[in-house]
């Protein structure tokens, strides 16, 4: 059925009907569902094609109703004084338009199942009449034979729920001489409604596009078909990208969870506080701050069978999980070796041999290991490629303990390591550190450096805990929020 546009020189609007086409499709429709003859509606637009609604509407009184394109046009007709039935050709373009169903005697053309789903989720103040559009032979839009029967059942349920007033059957047939503008705009209206519904779709779950959209490229082998193909390609790629992003996010969260567990395990390897009787004779404080979730620095301390204090601080090459595993092995070897050996040089030598036996990745660890006699202050130590420790005297002066026992552990087997000896006086503090302290950088790339570290360690007498915390605070102030370059580890031992 096609209708003439309202013209100002006509008292009434007449509908021109292609009787043969109407009879053909109506006969097919009545065989399946039956129903009354189709109504005749006069078409109108919000601007009445330039003539103004207030001037054009009086000429439409003899029509069964006014047919408009959108809900916005329907509201414009009501505002202009039309009080008769209004048929909205596009029905509902998007879900949110159910909120605009406030006009009495409103009729909606229903062309696809999504519109019924939107109505099922709404409670319109003025339930509309639903006109189910039968595609017939044109296949230009609407329900096919099987889809029409399903749509009618769903519409009947909406009427029973009070979400719709009644059901109408629309037999819409395009005339053979239908102009090209109409042929183009109809599928474009369908694409527009579909595009507006995309933000409401759950792109995390695979979903096939509606049949009315999927069939557009094959039905329209022109610019409209290519546009529909682009829409379908965009939707498919959006779904693939969202799915890939979800997989990557899940994988990243799983890795982060595993790294957090590894961090907790690594922190659980750190030594417990010294026994009370040992803490009464020496003050010890240590801290470790990994640059990543897990790190390759280590520190450890424990008492030997003869009562002396054994301590160690080290830095494994590399960062992350491999360095953390190498660190755990090194710590275990130190403790196992110290059960039968108390000379720091021999302990380091045995640790080096064991680490070098099977080391395909050529990892290594710099190590400072010392044994302190708590009664006399005698300190024996071995330095395997580690930065020299600092000693802070009771008067605040700072000196470095020189001497290198041998290379880092894990590089080569059967290397000798030299033992080094000194004495710590009462009130003196031995400070071991890793290069994460001296190599810390600010936002401009300037390094903290050894000179600043020694200057910060000096000064008035402080407890071991206060001295470690003061140095850490100064390093973080210097970095000013820059990402840490390396793990930071400190150990301070003050003779009481």
Structure description:
- Helix content is 38%, strand content 18%.
- It is an alpha/beta fold and 496 residues long.
- The protein has two domains: 2-178, Alpha-Beta Barrel (TIM Barrel); 274-495, PPM-type phosphatase domain (Phosphatase 2c, domain 1), CATH 3.60.40.
- Strands 3-4-5-6-7-8 form a six-stranded parallel β-sheet.
Question: What are the salient characteristics of this protein?
Answer:
single chain, 496 residues, alpha/beta, TIM Barrel, Phosphatase 2c, domain 1, 2 domains, six-stranded parallel β-sheet, five-stranded antiparallel β-sheet, 15 helices, 18 strands, 38% helix
Strand order of the largest sheet: 3-4-5-6-7-8
N/C terminus separation: 105 Å
Q: How much of the sequence is in beta strands? A: 15-25%
CATH architecture descriptor name of the largest domain: 4-Layer Sandwich
Shape: rod-shaped
Number of helices: 15
What's the number of domains? 2
> What is the makeup of the main sheet?
6 strands, parallel
Estimate the mean pLDDT confidence.
81
CA-based gyration radius: 42 Å
Q: Give the fraction of residues assigned to helices.
A: 25-40%
Decide which structural class fits the backbone: alpha/beta
Count of extended strands: 18
CATH level-3 fold name of the largest domain: Phosphatase 2c, domain 1
Residue stretches low in confidence (pLDDT < 50, at least 5 long) are: 1-27, 174-179
- Can you identify the CATH superfamily of the largest domain? PPM-type phosphatase domain
Name of the CATH first level of the largest domain: Alpha Beta
């Amino acid at each position: 059925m096609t209708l003439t546009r309202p013209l100002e020189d006509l008292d009434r609007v007449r509908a021109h009907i292609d009787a043969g086409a109407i009879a053909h499709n109506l006969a097919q429709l009545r065989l399946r569902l039956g129903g009354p003859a189709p109504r005749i509606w006069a078409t109108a637009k919000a601007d009445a094609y330039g003539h103004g609604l207030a001037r054009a509407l009086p000429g439409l009184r003899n029509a069964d109703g006014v047919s408009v394109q959108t809900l916005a046009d329907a509201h414009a007709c009501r505002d202009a004084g039309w009080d008769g039935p209004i048929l909205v050709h596009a029905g509902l373009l998007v879900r949110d338009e159910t909120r605009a169903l406030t006009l009495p005697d409103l009729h909606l053309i229903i062309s696809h199942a999504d519109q019924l789903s939107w109505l099922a989720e709404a409670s319109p103040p003025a339930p509309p009449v639903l006109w189910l559009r039968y595609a017939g032979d044109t296949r230009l839009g609407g329900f096919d034979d099987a889809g029409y029967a399903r749509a009618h059942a769903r519409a009947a349920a909406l009427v029973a729920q009070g979400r719709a007033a009644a059901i109408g059957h629309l037999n819409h047939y395009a005339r053979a001489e239908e102009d090209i503008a109409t042929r183009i705009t109809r599928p474009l209206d369908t694409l527009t409604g579909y595009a507006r519904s995309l933000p409401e779709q759950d792109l995390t779950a695979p979903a096939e596009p509606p049949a009315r959209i999927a069939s557009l490229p094959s039905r329209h082998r022109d610019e409209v078909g290519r546009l529909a193909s682009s829409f379908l390609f965009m939707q498919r790629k959006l779904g693939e990208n969202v799915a890939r992003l979800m997989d990557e996010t899940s994988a990243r969260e799983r890795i982060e969870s595993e790294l957090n567990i590894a961090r907790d395990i690594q922190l659980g390897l750190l030594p417990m506080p010294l026994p009370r009787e040992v803490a009464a004779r020496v003050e010890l404080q240590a801290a470790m701050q990994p640059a990543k979730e897990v790190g390759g620095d280590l520190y450890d301390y424990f008492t030997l069978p003869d009562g002396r204090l054994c301590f160690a601080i080290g830095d494994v090459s590399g960062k992350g999980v491999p360095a953390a595993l190498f660190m755990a092995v090194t710590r275990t070897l130190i403790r196992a070796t110290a059960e039968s050996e108390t000379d720091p040089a021999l302990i380091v030598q045995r640790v080096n041999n064991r680490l070098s036996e099977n080391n395909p990745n050529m990892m290594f660890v710099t190590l400072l290991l010392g044994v302190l006699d708590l009664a006399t202050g005698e300190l024996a130590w071995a330095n395997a490629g580690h930065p020299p420790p600092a000693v802070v005297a009771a008067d605040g002066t700072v000196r470095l303990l020189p001497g290198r026992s041998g290379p880092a552990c894990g590089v080569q087997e059967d290397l000798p390591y030299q033992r080094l000896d000194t004495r710590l006086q009462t009130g003196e503090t031995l400070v071991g550190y890793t290069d994460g302290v001296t190599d810390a950088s600010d936002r401009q790339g300037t390094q903290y450096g050894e000179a600043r570290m020694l200057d910060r360690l000096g000064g008035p007498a402080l407890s071991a805990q206060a001295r470690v915390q003061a140095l850490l605070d100064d390093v973080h102030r210097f970095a000013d929020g820059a990402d840490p370059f390396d793990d930071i580890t400190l150990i301070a031992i003050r003779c009481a």
